[in-house]
């Protein structure tokens, strides 16, 4: 035996009793307890009867240690009772324990003295331990490894010792365990005891009169449902945190600056040559000809705002993520001795906290992308917010490497200006009144105007948001985070929106997918018109109308439909949540409704197939699919309560939109906020982290983290991207990101359910669908059309249309041509699309491609060939004898594999 050296109070000790890989028998347990008793008793006064807190464990020859009992609390004088209790725990333990070779009995114990707060436990009692692992495999019903009867007929539980109309005591066979039962008409309340120690409690509830083997058993936070003696469904309540309200702001904060760069492209390399910064009072301008290099100019600009005056200010740059940040990131890393930790998601810099010191005092600035708050061009924002318009400038004129940046002379020609009418150009020329045109003056004037315009737009936006919602925009770097803040401060109320991460997130995320985008028929018959309809605010509509999952999720295993409506039990009238199911799609559907992900020649694709597969779906999408012949077998899932949680939010903002004139700030704000909230709930909690550190410290990150990329900044610093190794069992230790993927998944699923009605209309042929739009061969019935939320609006009537692939289509109306090609900056004409209907035909398009180089702080612009051809892996393409693409049909899956 290995004994502790001294008896100490309020400290956990381990007492080992060696077994030497023998079969563990009851006498070993008695001997071990006796040895522990002697050890403790020999070191305390004879008149002292302390409280002992103790748990029985086993160490196996594999060095695994498993708990056998729950934690017991008893007096030293009651030690004789421990033998019976611990032997009983061992006897009813899972048989899997018996297949291992035990090396030691371990008693983990603590002798109770006074705690630091002066309190002391004075009575014996049992504290049940939640950490005991549940047995996974057993032919009998077991709870946390303890064998329990699978019927409410307690006469089968063992020997009935006593019995009345309201109670009974049953002794378990070959055991000192007793069931103490309270009886009512349809319910048994049971305490499982060894002597007077309760080791377990449960309640059995009869499902069907006269059938004692069909019942519900409730134990703590778990529920087990037996049908005809078989464990059919297991439920476990999962405790989560909930989204919290935030307080309304007392006053508006306007601590921000605006910054803008002007660039030129020489030999395909884009670099800055002018910088302007505005703080609401003064403009600071920097021009390249005043400095030795671009780097020196940029450093001078940043140093000018590295002052205590701007402590904790936000520095807004329009399109910082994809443009200005490329030039500034390396420069910022050279101006501080501190690490820089940019928040980057999906390639966008959400926030860049820049810390610096002055006389040993630490200060910080936050660089933000104003485009992530207001995703429109600065020119459009100036018009909408009615502030000083963005100026006019000949961008192409400065791209001449032989041009002096101090050029003074003739006004640049019309060909150097973009998106400018000839009339506006002539007015621009007239404004100089025969004076020379000065490049420095015009650049600085133009750049200055940009920072002033952006500042005024942000001020107006800030004032509007604060007046409407009492929220400060500078606290929220993106439109989605701002929308969430507005919801939390004004509309969350008492709704319990569960915050989901870890394994819960992983499971439910499988049921989160976007809208259905598919080509069904590539072109219309000659003379047949195509009608394009869009839903008015699809996602806000379903958010307002439909129920959303709230409350603590309940995990279940088994087919929940066996106890739902129509089963004869109706325990869950209409189970609501996310279910993993086996799917069988009806063979007759030309346009299937349910989506799943498959591996195709082009990677992972979301498709709507026929056949059979497994998937995770929102319950409401399952019920909708059943109407059209789909069949499901439910395997497991998560149940939720349901409430309409977005009505107030959507009603207020949509009403603001309806009452606002198109093009006004209120109209723009309402449109942006309506469509930005739901996606915020679906963020992935496993964020990639980023840090700019000295290259000498990179090895430390590599050793400790899962590094995904290293970008050398060519200045002794490196941008490291990495994931933190994460144990999902430690979810509660993580800072909440306010993520609730069930909400996001329910919104997109409900939107697909709404759109499914247009995929199943009789006597209407469907050519193409996008998330919120349809292209059909005749007008919709009037009941579907209107200006209200969720109704359809007619966008185009095409005399001729072509649909080549998702996001690749075009059409011609009576007055205009409309072509949409995802990823193509300058779309081709409608006529150029027609040859692509033939197999293996392609069109080559010369396109400008930008390569962003953070290491050198520039953007490389190249002319590249973009090859456009039919490349659709979402449905089978059907060609006629002339190899013309004429139709499509659904893919067919066999157990998830493509035939």
TrEMBL record:
The keyword Nucleotidyltransferase applies. One of its GO terms (cellular component) is mitochondrion. GO terms for molecular function: DNA binding; DNA-directed DNA polymerase activity; nucleotide binding. It comes from the Eukaryota. Gene3D superfamilies: Helix hairpin bin, Palm domain of DNA polymerase, Ribonuclease H-like superfamily/Ribonuclease H. GO terms for biological process: DNA replication. InterPro entries: DNA-dir_DNA_pol_B (IPR006172), DNA-dir_DNA_pol_B_CS (IPR017964), DNA-dir_DNA_pol_B_mt/vir (IPR004868), DNA-dir_DNA_pol_B_mt_lin_plsmd (IPR015833), DNA/RNA_pol_sf (IPR043502), DNA_pol_palm_dom_sf (IPR023211), RNaseH-like_sf (IPR012337), RNaseH_sf (IPR036397). Residues 308-759 form the DNA-directed DNA polymerase family B mitochondria/virus domain. It catalyses: DNA(n) + a 2'-deoxyribonucleoside 5'-triphosphate = DNA(n+1) + diphosphate. Its EC number is 2.7.7.7. It is found in: Mitochondrion. Belongs to the DNA polymerase type-B family. This is DNA polymerase. It comes from Termitomyces sp. T32.
């Amino acid at each position: 035996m290995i004994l502790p050296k001294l008896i100490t109070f309020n400290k956990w000790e381990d007492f080992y009793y060696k077994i030497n890989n023998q079969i563990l028998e009851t006498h070993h347990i008695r001997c071990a307890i006796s040895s522990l008793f002697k050890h403790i008793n020999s070191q305390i006064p004879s008149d002292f009867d302390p409280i002992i807190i103790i748990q029985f464990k086993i160490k196996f020859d594999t060095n695994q240690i498993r708990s056998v009992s729950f934690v017991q609390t008893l007096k030293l004088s009651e030690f004789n009772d421990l033998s019976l209790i611990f032997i009983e725990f061992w006897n009813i333990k899972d048989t899997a324990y018996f297949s291992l070779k035990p090396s030691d009995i371990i008693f983990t114990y603590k002798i109770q003295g006074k705690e630091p707060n002066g309190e002391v436990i004075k009575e014996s009692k049992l504290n049940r331990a939640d950490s005991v692992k549940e047995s996974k495999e057993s032919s009998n019903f077991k709870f946390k490894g303890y064998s329990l009867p699978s019927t409410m007929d307690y006469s089968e539980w063992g020997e009935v010792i006593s019995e009345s109309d309201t109670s009974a005591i049953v002794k378990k066979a070959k055991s000192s365990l007793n069931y103490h039962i309270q009886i009512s008409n349809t319910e048994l309340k049971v305490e499982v005891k060894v002597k007077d120690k309760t080791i377990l409690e449960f309640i059995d509830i009869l499902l069907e009169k006269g059938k004692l083997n069909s019942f519900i058993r409730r134990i703590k936070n778990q529920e087990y449902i037996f049908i005809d003696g078989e464990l059919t469904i297991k439920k476990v309540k999962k405790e989560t945190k909930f989204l919290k309200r935030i307080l309304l702001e007392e006053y508006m904060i306007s601590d921000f600056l605006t910054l803008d760069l002007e660039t030129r492209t020489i030999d395909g390399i884009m670099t800055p040559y002018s910088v302007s910064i505005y703080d609401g009072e003064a403009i600071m301008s920097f021009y390249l000809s005043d400095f030795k290099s671009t780097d020196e100019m940029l450093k001078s600009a940043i140093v000018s705002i590295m002052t205590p005056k701007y402590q904790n200010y936000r520095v807004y740059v329009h399109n910082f993520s994809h443009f200005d940040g490329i030039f500034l990131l390396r420069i910022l890393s050279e101006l501080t001795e501190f690490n820089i930790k940019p928040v980057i998601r999906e390639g966008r810099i959400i926030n860049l906290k820049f810390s610096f010191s002055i006389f040993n005092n630490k200060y910080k600035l936050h660089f933000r992308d104003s485009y992530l708050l207001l995703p429109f061009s600065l020119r459009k924002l100036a018009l909408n917010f009615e502030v000083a318009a963005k100026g006019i400038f000949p961008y192409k004129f400065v791209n001449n490497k032989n041009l002096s940046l101090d050029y003074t002379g003739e006004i640049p020609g019309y060909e150097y200006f973009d998106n400018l009418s000839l009339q506006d150009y002539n007015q621009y020329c007239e404004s100089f009144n025969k004076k020379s045109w000065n490049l420095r003056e015009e650049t600085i004037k133009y750049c200055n105007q940009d920072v002033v315009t952006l500042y005024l737009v942000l001020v107006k936006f800030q004032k509007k948001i604060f007046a409407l919602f009492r929220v400060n925009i500078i606290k929220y770097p993106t439109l989605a985070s701002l929308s969430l803040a507005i919801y939390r401060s004004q509309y969350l109320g008492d709704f319990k929106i569960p915050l989901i991460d870890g394994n819960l997130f992983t499971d439910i995320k499988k049921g989160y997918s976007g809208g259905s985008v598919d080509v069904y028929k590539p072109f219309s018959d000659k003379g047949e018109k195509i009608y394009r309809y869009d839903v008015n605010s699809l996602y806000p509509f379903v958010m307002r109308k439909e129920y959303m999952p709230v409350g603590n999720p309940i995990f279940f295993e088994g087919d929940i439909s066996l106890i739902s409506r129509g089963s004869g039990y109706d325990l869950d009238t209409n189970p609501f949540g996310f279910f993993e199911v086996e799917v069988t799609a009806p063979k007759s559907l030309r346009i299937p409704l349910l989506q799943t992900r498959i591996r195709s020649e082009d990677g992972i694709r979301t498709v709507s197939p026929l056949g059979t597969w497994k998937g995770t779906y929102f319950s409401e999408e399952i019920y909708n699919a059943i109407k059209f012949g789909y069949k499901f077998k439910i395997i497991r899932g998560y149940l939720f309560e349901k409430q309409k949680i977005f009505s107030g939010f959507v009603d207020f903002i949509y009403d603001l939109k309806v009452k606002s004139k198109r093009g006004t700030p209120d109209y723009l704000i309402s449109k942006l906020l309506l469509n930005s909230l739901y996606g915020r709930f679906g963020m992935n909690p496993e964020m990639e982290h980023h840090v700019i550190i000295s290259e000498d410290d990179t090895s430390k990150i590599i050793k400790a983290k899962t590094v995904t990329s290293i970008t050398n900044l060519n200045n002794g610093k490196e941008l490291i991207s990495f994931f933190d190794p994460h144990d999902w069992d430690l979810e509660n230790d993580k800072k909440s990101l306010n993520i609730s993927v069930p909400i996001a998944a329910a919104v997109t699923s409900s939107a697909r359910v709404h759109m499914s009605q247009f995929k199943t209309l009789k006597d209407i042929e469907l050519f193409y669908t996008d998330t919120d739009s349809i292209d059909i061969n005749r007008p919709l019935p009037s009941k579907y059309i209107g200006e209200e939320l969720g109704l359809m609006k007619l966008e185009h009537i095409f005399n001729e249309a072509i649909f080549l692939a998702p996001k690749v289509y075009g059409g011609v109306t009576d007055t205009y041509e409309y072509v949409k090609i995802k990823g193509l900056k300058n779309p081709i004409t409608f006529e150029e699309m027609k040859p692509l209907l033939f197999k293996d035909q392609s069109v080559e398009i010369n396109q400008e491609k930008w390569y962003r180089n953070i290491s050198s702080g520039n953007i490389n612009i190249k002319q590249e060939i973009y090859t456009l051809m039919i490349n659709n892996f979402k449905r089978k393409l059907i060609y006629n004898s002339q190899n013309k693409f004429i139709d499509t049909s659904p893919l067919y899956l066999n157990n998830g594999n493509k035939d």
